[in-house]
Amino acid sequence: MRFLLPVLCALGTTTLHAVPPFEPNYDESLANPLPIPDVLVAEDGSRVTDRETWERKRRPELLSLFSSEVYGQTPSRTVPVTYSAMGEDKEVFGGKGLMRQIEMRMGEGERQRSAQILLYLPATAKTQPAPVFVLLNFWGNHSVSADPDIVLNPGWFRSNKDKHIVNNRATEASRGVSASRYTVEAILDRGYALATTYYGDFSPDRRDGFADGVHALFNEDDAEERAGDAWGNIGAWAWGLSRMADYLTELPGIDSDRIAVLGHSRLGKTALWAGAQDERFALVISNNSGEGGASLAKRNFGETVGRLNETVPRWFCPNYDKYSKNEGALPMDQHALVALMTPRPVYIASATEDLWADPLGEFLAAKLAEPVYALYGKKGLGVDEQPAPDTPVGASVGYHLRKGKHDLSAYDWQRFMDFADRQGAR
Ligand code: GCU
Fold first, then answer.
1. Which residues line ligand 1 (CB under 6 A)?
2. Nearest 5 degrees, angle CA 49-CA 51-CA 55?
3. Which of 101, 166, 300, 321 has the smallest C-beta neighbourhood within 10 Å, fewest atoms?
4. Domain containing 79 — which CATH number?
5. What number does the ligand 1 atom closest to the CA of 311 have?
6. pLDDT tens sequence across 69-83
7. Residue-wise pLDDT tens digits, 182-201
């Protein structure tokens, strides 16, 4: 009471309502209260039956809905970005590949921001341009490998003891802490390149982070009131992935027709949004992306739209909150985001213990995107039911349900490479 009293006085006549803690539903019999809109029915109610109408009418409608209602508008204005190699390339894994670090400078003058790309190229890239996986990382490039030559990111990090973050900064002990998520040697062994950047370089993942990220390049830092369709963190992270693609498409040694974008969890949501907007990503992979990513929002299982808007509204645009506890009002669902990749291959990965992300909702989003692939004569998953654990399926739409927890594992990477191998060149 001693502490509560001043608070109550300060609140004056305001009535206090206790907010009940969020209780996720994990009962499948209660999970499907709402119908899922058909991705091929346009806003005017007409049915889309051919590619031309999909590309000219329905696809733009959906892209615009995700911009205005979910992730926010990505600025169309460009800012200058320069890329410079930081030091010499270094041979790694006994000559299996090269490691290069590239500094990206974005914008000009006081508002300039910088980010660093960590690039691994397989040895074969000297003679044959390599396909590449582009992804953002959570804990800095130095967390991808314990290699002491990787620059220790000096930026802001979320608190995390296990990752050896002290006072929101990475420490020497942070080197290699996430290595199991990147399996660099195994990727090089299969002839793929890997390009990764710390997501916080583009937009720090904190409530007041917009002034320190790329939002500031577009004069939107710290606006008191964000517009309903203002882009959030996911929009900025996706923008960063496209700027990485700008560099990679011009790079000898990289096959610009085989640039895959991949992401785990919030960065899986980001990979989907980047892939939807930027068709240079020839393959799009979502790993355990869950709510606001691959899983259907209108299903009630695990995390919900309301819960996202309560805990991380900054990831999305303010309009997204209109659908909190009101998913029935959403004019589309997340399978439409998956469908925006058509005709490019897309892969959705879930994990058995990742119920928060709703593995079945992720599978169903992939399934319900298939009719758009069919317009291109492309085969989707090839199954109607969610497959058993550790049984990958799919032709142009791939899916697996890995045994285990929310994570990006060596198993996931092997399946992604199997799928990418099967796609070949565009
Ligand atoms: C939380 C959040 C998820 C998100 C995940 C992550 O669990 O609720 O939506 O995907 O964090 O990015 O790690």
1. 265-266, 290-291, 303, 356
2. 115
3. 166
4. 3.40.50.1820
5. 8
6. 999 999 999 999 999
7. 999 999 999 999 999 999 99
